[in-house]
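Whiteboard transcription, Tuesday session. T.W. wrote the structure tokens on the left side:
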């Protein structure tokens, strides 16, 4: 079993007030409380009140969504509108729906619980309260505290024996270190408005990171991923035959490498499938070879298996492809990465 840091998966980031399209409305109050239970589950409770102050807000906030998947289950959900004249209207089930995730993935377990707010007008106040139970794949998470809308009153509480750190600008935020977590309050917070061509979220947004992993090491991340790969056969007869066939005329390790890479480039299409733990665990190389498609971790593990049969040392390598984010070494976690490539010794390149 390869024992180096490697993981690919969905970037599981808790973003406050998850909306499909956020405008420049005024968030009157936002409360998020996350409790890490003894069993390792996360209970997340969110309450948000938003006042629509411009015509663009009416369209931008006509829908509100909660991101869910097979490991994020919705509990209670309530929504209401308060018109400018003070009349309060509860939004019923008929205005709520499940919307499947749409993107590059061929299959995904992600979906959204969406509520549609009918008959919005200026100075309308939206109220949403919901609970989500989360079964995390790894004992760490992170949260972007600010977004496109100014916030009058912010309260975020994380409890359950976590260690934490707040990165990025903290103007207007008051941080309280709790015995088993952290509480962050904010008043009159401005919307995120980075300068043109700025680096992005890593520099312009406050990010709260927390972990409840007692080991808290990159070795623990590597061991976690090793366990995901334990059941995957790699050196199958099909893989061995293909490696031998493609490298039979190669005279050097570099030529063997080029032959195998070129075959995967031409014969194995890139198609992403992110269903449950499949967002992290690749498919077996033999399966990828047979169906002739896979995502980066599928193709990467197949290439590693082929290279091994060709006598070339190779390892999956975890990387982050996002200029707006950075790796935080103090909080080891697979959620900090979003891509996987294959590393080989420099001596053969």
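and on the right, the sequence the group agreed on:
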């Amino acid at each position: 079993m390869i024992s180096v840091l490697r993981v690919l998966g969905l970037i599981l980031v808790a973003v406050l007030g998850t909306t499909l399209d956020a405008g420049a409305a005024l968030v009157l109050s936002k409360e998020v409380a996350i409790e890490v239970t003894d069993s390792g589950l996360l209970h997340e409770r969110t309450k948000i009140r938003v006042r629509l102050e411009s015509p663009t807000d009416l369209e931008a906030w006509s829908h509100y969504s909660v991101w869910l998947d097979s490991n994020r289950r919705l509990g209670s959900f309530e929504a209401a509108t308060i018109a400018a004249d003070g009349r309060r209207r509860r939004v019923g089930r008929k205005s709520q729906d499940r919307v499947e995730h749409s993107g590059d993935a061929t299959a995904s377990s992600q979906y959204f619980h969406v509520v549609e707010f009918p008959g919005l007008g200026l100075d309308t106040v939206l109220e949403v309260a919901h609970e989500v139970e989360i079964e995390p794949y790894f004992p760490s998470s992170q949260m972007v505290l600010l977004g496109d809308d100014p916030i009058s009153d912010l309260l975020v509480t994380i409890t359950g024996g976590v260690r934490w750190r707040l990165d990025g600008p903290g103007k207007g935020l008051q941080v309280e270190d709790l015995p088993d977590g952290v509480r962050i309050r904010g008043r009159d917070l401005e919307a995120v408005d980075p300068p043109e061509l700025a680096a992005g979220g890593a520099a312009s947004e406050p990010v709260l990171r927390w972990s409840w992993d007692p080991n808290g090491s990159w070795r623990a991340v590597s061991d976690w991923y090793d366990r995901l790969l334990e059941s995957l056969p790699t050196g199958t007869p099909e893989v061995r035959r293909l490696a031998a066939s493609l490298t039979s005329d190669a005279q050097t390790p570099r030529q063997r490498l080029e032959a195998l890479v070129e075959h995967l480039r031409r014969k194995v299409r890139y198609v992403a499938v992110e269903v449950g733990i499949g967002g992290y665990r690749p498919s077996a190389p033999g399966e990828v070879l047979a169906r002739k498609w896979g995502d980066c971790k599928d193709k990467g593990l197949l290439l590693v298996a082929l290279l091994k049969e060709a006598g070339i040392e190779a390892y999956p390598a975890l990387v982050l492809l996002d200029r707006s984010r950075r790796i935080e070494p103090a909080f080891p976690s697979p959620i900090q990465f979003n891509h996987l490539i294959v590393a080989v010794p420099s001596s053969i390149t």
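Someone added at the bottom: Residues 7 and 334 are 6 Å apart (CA to CA).
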